[in-house]
Design a protein that fits this description.
Blueprint: H1 13-39, H2 41-52, H3 56-84, H4 86-106, H5 110-138, H6 141-168, H7 175-180, H8 183-193, H9 200-205, H10 209-217, H11 222-238, H12 253-268, H13 271-284, H14 289-313, H15 319-340, H16 349-365, H17 368-378, H18 385-404, H19 407-437, H20 446-455
Length: 459
């Protein structure tokens, strides 16, 4: 016996667009917290170091401890998000963000501060995987690039906000307020998440077809919802049960290698050396504490503004032109920054470095900054997206850890010129690989992208 389904009507187009935008914005608050908690240490470190009597090595460890948590968070989030769902995982992560921010602000010594930053890292690592995955799975193909990239925009807004807060408290040196204010957006995110629907793709993967259709009707017309369900069902029927070992199978290997390459290039050009240590680098170039922090505000502004500009074009121009063009500019600027230190007695080196770092951040924001989360949310099959995207995020955080714990050491050993040129050479290697292997994913379904990767198509 069959039962008929009562007629259902979806919301009008304007309401559907508003629903997907609202849901994406709430989820992307995880990106804002990601940006704030990673960026705020750059200013806070100038005051934490003397209060806790930190050597260069210990300063690097305080910075890098967050990345240890992020590695664990990104490893653990893959199985968790596939088991309990995207929405519930995000709720847990927002609560961890709140706890980590409060513990950071109250830390009486270095050991508690490191523990708090590891806790924040767990939330950051998890959200770096879950947020873009959730947004990609609720967004229509025509809006997916822009909405997934909202996560990166929120990261840059978080970084910029952390620099502004750092400058606001620079005169008083109140680093505890700098790190503690992150609790405000984390609580807003926690409350907002309870209003969202679960990912329709995850619901369908758990056999909850009607729930998946209801979730789709929030952001799709009735006809589009049924078409999307049929397409997702067909794709899932072709997928077997995968383990992590299966990620290196011939079917999945192209996507996994591409996710790894994007994440590796994102980090190996040294972006987080700039985010974490810009005030320290500029202070070493002759600027005072307040001037160095103010200069970092300009760097953060360039990052944020060019992320916004790239968002306007990501679904029009496409992924390949922005990623390959922007990465080329990043590489050229890195070599130029290294060359600045070779010029004899450069007057105003700090200002020249600030200008170069602003250009670097602008080019990075419009290319690799968007690509890591967008590409990793698009290229993997639905059934293994949580596990497979973890490869990219673990690569990101693992290399981020190595960079953050080595910047000051490498500057002392190789000079700033050597540091910037190493990042430039590594960027060249990444650019070549991406030029040869990155497909264009603009306006394509996730299932179509998967098919093109297996066939080795670039465009």
């Amino acid at each position: 016996m069959t039962t008929s389904r009562a007629p259902e009507t979806s919301a009008p187009p304007r309401a559907r667009r508003g629903a997907v935008l609202g849901a994406s914005t709430i989820a992307a608050l995880g990106g804002l917290l990601f940006g704030y908690d990673t960026g705020v240490i750059s200013a806070a470190l100038l005051y934490i170091a003397p209060e806790f009597s930190l050597s260069d090595g210990m300063q690097q460890f305080v910075v890098a401890s967050l990345l240890l948590g992020a590695i664990a968070g990104s490893l653990g989030a893959g199985p968790v998000v596939d088991r309990i769902g995207r929405k519930v995982t995000l709720i847990v992560l927002s609560a961890v963000f709140s706890a980590g921010a409060l513990l950071s602000a109250l830390a009486p010594d270095t050991s508690i501060l490191v523990l708090a930053r590891i806790l924040l890292g767990l939330a950051i690592g998890g959200s770096s995987l879950v947020v873009p995955t959730y947004i990609a799975e609720i967004a229509p193909p025509t809006l997916r690039g822009r909405l997934v990239s909202m996560n990166q925009l929120m990261i840059t807004i978080g970084i910029f906000a952390s620099y502004l807060v750092g400058y606001a408290f620079a005169e008083s040196g109140a680093w505890r307020w700098m790190v503690g204010l992150a609790v405000v957006p984390s609580l807003v995110m926690l409350v907002g998440l309870f209003t969202l629907a679960e990912s329709p793709r995850w619901l369908l993967s758990r056999g909850r077809t009607e729930d998946a259709r209801k979730a789709l009707l929030r952001t799709h017309s009735a006809a589009d919802a049924d078409a999307s369900l049929a397409e997702m069902s067909e794709a899932m029927r072709e997928e077997s049960k995968f383990s992590y070992r299966d990620l290196l199978s011939p079917k999945l290997r192209p996507a996994v290698l591409l996710g790894f390459a994007v994440a590796a290039t994102n980090q190996l050009v040294g972006v987080n050396a700039v985010i974490y240590y810009a005030p320290t680098i500029l202070k070493q170039a002759g600027l005072g504490d307040s001037a160095a922090i103010l200069s970092s505000v300009g760097i953060g502004a360039a990052n944020m503004i060019f992320t916004m500009i790239a968002l306007l074009f990501i679904d029009k121009v496409g992924r390949r032109p922005l990623l390959l063009g922007g990465t080329s500019v990043v590489i050229l600027v890195l070599f130029g920054l290294g060359a600045l230190y070779l010029l004899p007695s450069v007057h105003g080196l700090g200002l020249l470095l600030t200008g170069g770092l602003m250009l670097y951040e602008a080019a990075f924001a419009a290319s690799l900054g968007l690509a890591i989360w967008l590409i990793n949310s698009e290229v993997f099959p639905t059934a293994v997206r949580g596990k497979a995207a973890g490869v990219g995020t673990v690569t990101h955080w693992g290399l981020d850890f190595l960079i953050s714990i080595s910047v000051l050491t490498l500057i002392n050993a190789l000079t700033p010129t050597g540091l910037f040129w190493i990042y430039g050479l590594l960027g060249v290697l990444g650019l070549v690989y991406l030029w040869r292997n990155l497909p264009e994913t603009k306006n394509r379904t996730l299932e179509d992208i998967e098919s093109s990767l297996r066939k080795g198509e670039r465009a």
